[in-house]
Amino acid sequence: MKAVTQTEYGPSSVLKIIDVPKPVPGAKDLLVKMYAVATNPVDCKARINFGRSGKLEGPKILGWDGAGVVEAVGSEVAHFKVGDQVYFAGVLNRAGCNAEYAVVDERIVGRKPVNLTWEQAAAVPLTGLTAWEALTEQMHIRVPDANSTNADRVLLVSAGAGGVGSIAIQLAKRVLKLTVIATASRPESVEFCKKMGADHVIDHSGDIAAQLKAINIKGVDYVLECYSLDKYFETWCGVLNPLGAICSIVEAKNPLPVQNLMFKRGTLTWELMFTRPLTGVHPEKQRQILDRLADYCEDKIIDPRVTVQFPSMDKMIEAHDIQESGKALGKLALTVKF
Q: Do residues 158 and 226 lie in contact, with contact meaning Cβ atoms separated by under 8 Å?
């Protein structure tokens, strides 16, 4: 099969299309014929080996967002059959899906939303899983029902126009019923956050506390950090309400003054959607989340915004360059044509 691969770590130019062996599914795996893939910041980080030294022993396939059709199933597969339309994010320690075919554990695969194009569907899994796990598992925000409400709770989403930020805004506003504040610094990203449903948009390059005061927000109950925990941690500690929570999807490169959270009984937590499949801790929960997200897509509760769509896989270098620019809005997707 054809695949976008790299044989060395480095800039986007190391990505090459070559022929590689078609993968064989294991007992719990699906062999999926890929129809579309999407890019994420983790693709670029993995391409440079997360800034670590090291050498590749053979061609490496990136890509952790895709949609396609099940072509074969392993002997222990219980939830899918040949011909099913699926979408998934995969896991870092296996080959990615930037190829004609991919193998993935059925426990982390969901049914493709019927109302979405292949490209739209490919744009959902990684960011959708990240946002949902961050909000409901890490920060323990409950879905409102007849006996509960989140009407008085405030969520701040940093870098709201990015892939995770844009879907988190939608889930927080339309499903969890929170007041949502997004941060953005460019006119186009401000407008994008508003379209996603943010109640307020403030500029993360300015005085956060002063801007919150100007919109009559005394403090926030939750912060979803999608950009730089090092840069903004002390700011978030300052505006966090007592018993509030900060969840970061980005690593801290330096020690953090976590004692700032003590008197507020604040919580600092991280979200990494690869943790369940990497560690084998209830990976099937990700299938359940993906199926829930499919329902939300079909009910028009969330709208996966593919702002850049490429017609073929030979545009992968360009996709990585846009992803690394820090100016991408929503998601980038590619049709799997070689």
A: yes
